Amino acid sequence: xxxxxxxxxxxxxxxxxxxxxxxxxxxxxxxxxxxxxxxxxxxxxxxxxxxxxxxxxxxxxxxxxxxxxxxxxxxxxxxxxxxxxxxxxxxxxxxxxxxxxxxxxxxxxxxxxxxxxxxxxxxxxxxxxxxxxxxxxxxxxxxxxxxxxxxxxxxxxxxxxxxxxxxxxxxxxxxxxxxxxxxxxxxxxxxxxxxxxxxxxxxxxxxxxxxxxxxxxxxxxxxxxxxxxxxxxxxxxxxxxxxxxxxxxxxxxxxxxxxxxxxxxxxxxxxxxxxxxxxxxxxxxxxxxxxxxxxx
Length: 296
Description:
Shape: elongated
Low-confidence stretches: none
Number of strands: 12
């Protein structure tokens, strides 16, 4: 074919031949992966772990320390499968918290406060005794016999009887209350009483020990008494009858033997204070105290 049409056909044929000839080479180039830049390199073997040095032998003990025996090992690692509490053993404890002499305003005398218990881990018989003597006579004497049982980790419930021997005629009360350790290590006794003739009382006692040094302890104590109805024979009126606050600093020769010295402040209130004024007795009085604290 000649002319312009033939020239165009010849150019198209040449382009088609070039395309068909380059296609297999392009396909082969796309299927061949690129060369590995690390080809021919040898990976080094992992390094062997460093040897662990042997444990050092224990040093030789001084000659005055005996070698450890099987009995020593058994004592250090006892069998703890059993439960050692709440057994049937009976124990006892007694604390003479205050055995003291008091003096102030031309009046001197003695005072004692004793607590103790006997029993097992849960049920115990609690005994309390307290008395005040002035100018060679006994002004106040009373004692408690209470059954106690724990109701919480630091608290016991108590119930029993209280017997008053002084002042006035002997009197018996039914007693019930709580005792235990409040936050900040405050020892608390809260006891209510019911007596003959509809009489009732409530006594609160709180004490706190503050260790000043290894053997030096300061104890603060607050006592308060409330009466439900007047009792003229004992010079008591209804309501708050009396409070006593004391600070005693003791030196512990041993934990169970400690002499102490301090001061107390006693005050009566309302109708009870009127009874004291009528008999020429002071309403409030501060005293110096010297005493001994013993327990076992």
